[in-house]
Amino acid sequence: MEFVQNLPFISILVSLFAGPVCLLLKGKKAKYVNLFVIISVGIMQLFVLLHALKLKEAYTYSMGHYPAPWGNEIRIGILEASMALFFTIILLLSMLAGIREREKDIDSEKQNLYYVMTNLLLCSLMALVYTNDIFNAYVFVEINTIAACGLIMIREKGRTILAATRYMIMNLLGSGLFLLGICFLYDLTGHLLMSNIKEQVAILNVTGEYHMPLLVAIVLLAVGLAIKSALYPFHSWVPDAYGYSTVSSAAILSSLVSKGYIFLLIKIFYRVVGFDIIASSKVIDVLFVFGVAGMLMGSINAIKEKDIRRMIAFSSVAQIGYIYMGFGLGTVAGMVASVYRIVFHAATKSLLFVAASGLIDASGNDKHITSLKGAGYRNKTAGVAFTVGALSMIGFPLLSGFISKILFAGAAWETDTKMMVTLVALAISTILNAMYFMRTVITIYTPMKTPEVKEKGYAKIKFSEETLKNITLIGFIVLNVLLGVCSEPVVDLIEKGLAMFG
Amino acid sequence: MEYVIVLPILISVLIGVLLLISSFVSHTREKSKAFISDNFKYTGVVSLITLFVCVAITLYVAWFGPDDIVLFSLVDDIPIHFHIDDLGRLFVTVTSIVWLMVCVYAIKYMKHEGEERRFYGCYLIVYGVLVALDFAGNLITFYLLYELMTITSVVMVLHKGTKEAIMAGLKYLFYSMAGAYCALFGMFVVYQHCHHLNFTAGANLNEVLASENREIMLVAVFFMLLGFGTKGGMLPFHAWLPTAHPVAPSPASAVLSAIIVKSGVLGVIRTVYYVVGPDFIRGSWVQYAWIGFALTTIFMGSMLAYREKVFKKRLAYSTVSQVSYIFFGLALLDPVAMTGSLVHVVGHALIKCSLFLSAGLFAFKTGKTHVDDFIGIGKTMKVTLMAYTLGALGLIGIPPTVGFISKWYFASGALKADLNVVSILGIVVLLISALLTAGYLLPITIRGFFPGKDVQIEEKEEKLDSMSGVIFIMAILALLIGILPNPIIDFAREIVATLF
Amino acid sequence: MSSYFMLIAVLLPIVGGCLIPLLPLNKRSWLAIYTEFIVITTSVLVFLIIVNRPDSGFVVFDLTKELSITLKLDETGSVFATLVAFLWPFATLYAVEYMRHETHEKTFFGFYTMTYGVTLGIAMAGNIVTLYLFYEMLTIVTLPLVMHTLTKEAIKASRTYIYYSLGGAAFAFIGMVYILKYGSTADFVAGGVLDMAKIGNGTDLMLLVYVICFCGFSVKAAMFPFSAWLPKAGVAPTPVTALLHAVAVVKAGAFAIIRVTNFSFGTEALKGTWAQNFLMVLVIFTIVYGCSRGLKEPHFKRRLAWSTVSNLSYILFGVITMSPMGLLGAFAHMICHAFMKITAFFCAGSVIYKTGRNYVYELDGFGRKMPKTFFAFTISGLALMGVPGLCGFVSKWDLAKGAVTNNTVLSFVGVAALLVSSLLTAIYMLSVVVRAYFPGKDFDYSTISDVKDPNWMMTLPLIIFVVVMFVIGLNPSLLMSQLSEVVDTVF
User: Fold this and answer.
1) Which one, A477, B33, B34, B319, has the greatest CB density within 10 A?
2) What mean pLDDT comes out for the span C223-233?
3) Quick one: which H or E segment has residue C451?
4) Share of chain B above pLDDT 90, in %
5) pLDDT tens readout for residues A163-185
6) Are residues B232 and B171 in contact, defined by beta-carbon separation less than 8 angstroms?
7) Buried b (16+ CB within 10 A) or exposed e, A16-50
8) Are B261 and B320 spatial neighbours (Cβ–Cβ below 8 Å)?
9) Is residue B90 pLDDT above 70, yes or no?
10) What's the pLDDT at C59?
11) Which pLDDT belongs to residue B317?
12) For chain B, what is the domain count?
């Protein structure tokens, strides 16, 4: 066994232990430790990905060298590795972008706690991505939830406590259902390792035994994770949680935490139940309906929203809807589209959150859209970044959103009944997206009269004042353009990875 | 030198444009040189001379010159094509005579209307366009000039610049446009079913194609009739005529009523007899509808004229009615009736011109425009009223005037065409209308000469001047045609003979 | 000529426009010279490319395996490119003078120049993805131009504009994906690329997608019921309304429809279907609808905008007849309408520039005071009506002929609609003309004594356009022979 194969395990371990370490350190040092961990984990993922690509097949890594079914396994394939790498990059950019806000929003004594949570979050994300053990997955889901809750709560301002409580309640409900689902599966199959469960499920499917309980188990798993990833109509916690937490939290929560759950769901589809069984069951139809409803309702809610952060949060609900709609198509192409959407959304939504925070800074910390008038002139980088993000969201060619739309539409043609619905939903959703994103873009480029600006004390923000944030913004923009222009390798990775899943 | 055909057209249009421009410039510049200021006395004379030259060349070209010229192509390799045939000669001669005479009249008349240069500019341009229209050798050329005629002649309607004139001008413009577009619709369709669009005596229909799409072709022809009929004031697009003709200065109303409405007639003749062919619509619903419209218009026009008290409006309604006589004659699709139509074209042009000019002269000398005010007018304007009476008699159709001849031909044509009830009905309408015509034209003479005892008007000798002279000449010309109708009838017969 | 030059032609104005805010063009005249230089250079380049048309396409880069951004200039694209390249320098000249009174000139000229490149991109797009790319870009780069005055009205209009345009593109997108999925190639091939074997018996679906796609692209071409944005967008400065909302943007919509109809779906598959009839009804309705709205509209520029709505549907009508003659008419009208409408808009702009008057009823007596402007306006009005001898008649004739050769009831209705619309055009254009020349007997000219024609930069384009209208009108074979060669390559 090559050394590189240990890296996924090491990365989980490193980030797990970095958490307690940060607890002991002072804020500033904790920050550096955290950054170091994220970067090193990222580098490790890069090596893992390269290795996985070289290997051309997935391998399992048993912890403690106990073979299945007793041991605890992680499984490394192209998709896992690339997702892990991608998540780390987004995490890094989000953390870098929010430094100033964090230092302002959070008590200086509690700074280190934030990094504890971030490290734990990274750990749980890595684990969710790599794990091959469904119970293990549950454990890390819980860690993930608690860490995320901490990220929301730590701002201790305004409605964050309320938001955290809501988040907690909904997520625990989701976790509970998820756990119940695992229990059912364990009952039916007697296994907790994914590969083993899959074999048993396949046998059950052939014999036709326990059809109902199996279906219930799948539904429980799917609904549990759907609640946790804020599928419409389980999204009530989203706007508050994303809207009031500190900016890096919002970016992380929307682009990583919910995506971790979704990735887990994909894993369950492929690795636990088997894609063919899922594709032929009614579960995906339900997901499809909720997905489409989410796409439209999320956007409609966003249009009504007057607070820019909450608006972007509602947009996330719509994006989650896209992803579930892709699942609901029940084809491999649909899955590819959904996974690409995860990537796209992670890149774009963080960009939007960070850019929005830049705009808010330039408007006296007022999040109301009307007070953002002319913010695009006061903070130029943030303005441009927001515009790019908005264009990507509405599927402007050369940006990642366009490729995502093409993938969805292409996938839709392969189905019969869902085709027209998908296409029209895509079109309408694009229009709705345009309605709130472009409206905001127009607003931020409508100059405010100079006396009014002076009266409100809005300051111009130069590039040098916010170098780090601006650089990360540029990083996000580049990422977005890269995903849009050179989507080929990414889609290729996803396709190969999904094939490896089966 | 076939280009000589274009010469009169070009000269008159060019001089006209120059006049228009100079009129325009004199308004835009604060100070202007004497010869372009509006006070320049000899505008009328200059125009008259130009016109005279043009008329001379035109008539020479029409009767003795080359008869065919193909210019550049406008669309689809359909060229601007001038071809002079007998029908064109007839129309162009009438046009030229009337235009020249009215110009003589206008020299004095327009002095007090103002904006002389603009008037004469348009007057000359319209003349050029009309000559070209009469020479037109295919439908496209015809249509081009037809539209140009509308656009240029509208300025004459607008001349007074009052609110009423502007509204009337717009009405004229939009009705004419509507008509032109109706005709254009027909042209689009007809074009597809013809060998070519050149005017060919008889027809040049691609009969196989046309009979395949007979219904749509009939609709197309119907639209063309309606469209060209608009200019002639035929129902249902007649409403512009009584509004537009009277508000123009009298010389303009005279030519509008006498000549320009006839271009609609020319359009109809060209369509029915030179492109589609009378046989195509004979017995179809189009023919009956056309006759129906024509007869209704005849009756209604006379009736409205009878009830109308403003003199020029009354004459305009009379035009509506009289032009539809011509349409009736054409709609019968009969050689005899058509001969009547052609004679009536000439007769009506001369007579209506003299009537309008006398109306203008009444207004010019006495300021009276209302019929009821004309009581005793014969005492002061004996010459004019006599000329008027001559014309009126011709229009009513009392033998031996030209009106009688044309009506005779209409009636015998109607009987010959053998359309049962329609023929009889037609003759009845003609008679009623003739009575009405007498009813609305003659009282002016009667009450003008015999105002009754209780009206005291000082008698005044009216000298025969250039204005009343013109009226007289016209009326006498019309009378002469009535007395010696043979040359013109023979000529009309010749034309008709080629068509059937 | 090497196919690289196409990329240069597209990029030069885009990059040049981007640079404007960055360059130290502090003096107004420098800005003007710089902009005009970029524009003219591009135009010259475009003409050179058209004359020595490169046969091969130029792949800029590959978006995915199947999708590439490709520039390729074929005959059809040349028509649009020539038109745009001819008009842009003149419009820029006009804009230089017009924008004297406005603020944010650098932004304005920046985006104005970029729009040129993007429009050329549409003309030179070699496949449907490239077309879609530039189509979307066009929306984005023209957005700041609509917003330019930054008044409440302008902001509202720009919102409407962006919702409509992006929404349209979202639906056109469906058609694009269909072509990618069911076509043998994404490239534009005369006669269409649909692979009938793949479609099988899904023709109804294909037609439905075509209708959706057509409607999507027709948003830019302002077809009913997607036309409301165009009159609203009239708040933009006149050079924008004139060049973009009468020519570049709206014709890009029509051009995209030509591409989709003749080069992607192919007329073979569409002719005589319910899709054709349905769209024809919409188009015919728009022809009349636009004119009637124009008739009611007292605002000068909005009236012209409604007229544009109607006239664009002439082009669409020509396309949707799906006959060579109809397409010829569509091309002809594309060019003729460009000249007619840009002239009319420039006249309206001159009035606004000189007097700030926006409404038709304020134009009494202007004919005397602004002779050149109103002479041009009269000619453009007559041309729009379709008076023979001017260019409007030429295109109308071909459109009608194309429809008549189709020989269906609907196409005859279409011809009738064309003529009804001509009549309405006559009413709304000539009522302005008559008002300007005949203000009424009692009109006091001293109230407008300070009204004058603008200077040569604004009148020169007008005069040239008027000359062009006459040249095309009197000698259409110049244009039509070229266009019919183009049409021959399409069918």
Assistant:
1) B319
2) 88
3) none
4) 29
5) 888 888 888 999 999 999 999 88
6) no
7) bebbebbeebebeebbebbbebbebbbebbbebbe
8) no
9) yes
10) 85
11) 92
12) 1
Chains B and A touch (3+ CB pairs under 8 A): no
In order, the DSSP letters of A355-391 are HHHHHHHTTTT--BGGGGTTHHHHSHHHHHHHHHHHH
Q: Is A397 on the interface with C (CB under 8 A)?
A: yes
Residue C200 confidence (pLDDT) above 70: yes
Helix axes A308-329 and A417-433, enclosed angle (nearest 10)? 170
pLDDT of residue B38: 55
DSSP code, position A256: I
pLDDT digits (tens, 9 = 90+) for B320-337: 999 999 999 999 888 899
Q: Note whether residue B233 is domain-resident.
A: no
Taking an 8 Å cut-off on Cβ atoms, the answer to whether C441 and B161 are in contact is yes
Q: What subunits touch chain B, counting only 3 or more CB pairs under 8 A?
A: C
Q: For A462-466, C15-19, C268-272, C328-332, which range has the lowest pLDDT when averaged over its residues?
A: A462-466
- C-chain residue closest to B26, CA distance: C368
Torsional sign, CA C448, C454, C455, C456: negative
pLDDT of residue B31: 55
- Name A101's Cβ contacts closer than 8 Å, sequence gap at least 6: A246, A247, A248, A357
Q: What are the tokens at C253?
A: 């919509």
Query: Tokens for C346?
Result: 């420039």
Q: How many beta carbons lie within 10 A of that of residue B173, not counting itself?
A: 24
Q: Where are the domains of chain C?
A: 271-491
Q: Give the pLDDT band of residue B125 (cuts 50, 70, 90).
A: very high
**% of residues, chain C, pLDDT over 70:** 100
- Mean pLDDT over C41-63 rounds to 87
Q: What is the pLDDT of residues B348-363, one digit of tens each?
A: 999 999 999 998 888 8
Q: Which domain holds residue B483?
A: 282-500
Q: What is the largest CA-CA distance in chain B?
A: 73
- Show Cβ contacts of residue A4 under 8 Å, excluding neighbours closer than 6 positions: A47, A48, A51
The DSSP H or E segment spanning B9 is helix B6-28
| Backbone angles phi and psi of C219, in degrees to 5 | -60, -45
pLDDT higher than 60, residue B33: no
What does the angle CA B279 – CA B285 – CA B289 come to, to the nearest 5 degrees? 110
The residue type found at B167 is M
Question: Tell me: the pLDDT tens digits for A169-225?
Answer: 888 999 999 999 999 888 888 888 888 888 888 888 888 778 888 888 888 998 899
The low-confidence residues of chain A, meaning pLDDT below 70, are 1, 64-71, 158, 502
Q: Give this complex's ipTM.
A: 0.87
Cis check: omega of the bond before C24, within 30 degrees of 0: no
Number of residues assigned to chain A: 502
Amino acid at B213: N
Pairwise CB contact (< 8 Å): B160 & C441: yes
Residue-level pLDDT at C316: 92
Other CB atoms closer than 10 Å to residue C467's CB: what's the count? 12
Q: In angstroms, what CA-CA distances link B415 with B412, B418, B426, B495?
A: 5, 5, 9, 21
Q: Which residues of A touch C204 (CB under 8 A)?
A: none
End-to-end, the C-alpha distance of chain A in Å comes to: 23
Residue C478 contacts A, CB cutoff 8 Å: no
Smallest Cβ–Cβ distance between C181 and the set A397, A398, A413 belongs to: A413
Task: Give a yes or no: residue B43 inside a domain.
Answer: no
